[in-house]
Predict the 3D structure of the following.
Amino acid sequence: MSRVCFQRFRTVKIDNKTVKLQIWDTAGQERFRTITSAYYRGADGIIMVYDVTSQESFDHVNDWLNEVNRYASEGTCKLLVGNKSDISDNKAVSYETAKAFADSLAIPFLETSAKNAQNVEEAFLTMASELITIREMVGDSNRPAGTKLTENTKSGGNSNGCSCN
């Protein structure tokens, strides 16, 4: 049985606001495309991750963006992340190329390394900050259904994960 997705909850605090992120890792594999479109519906934010050592992976970002734009709400926050930045010798997609692409779409961009945790926390903080900005712009009555911000009153967060089929 193949892993289709992994679900995890993450609580992020920015200033006096707490954002609870529900993260669905859908593996980004082409064979899961019909399944992943269901995850876009109702999503407040979507992080698209490509492998900086694979031009093909970066080329597929356009395909994923088309899917996101087709199925996600108009105000859904997007973030482009280039992973494996620790492997600079085999880099196929330059930072400048990816940054220019993200800028042309008005999408935040950063590179990360899951191996050494470089900028991984920053990716979640960037998404949380984008969600806060959107929430403050549209106000409580018009906020997306999945967005819930709370004042910081206690620390901690649930980091339970489960596999989905």
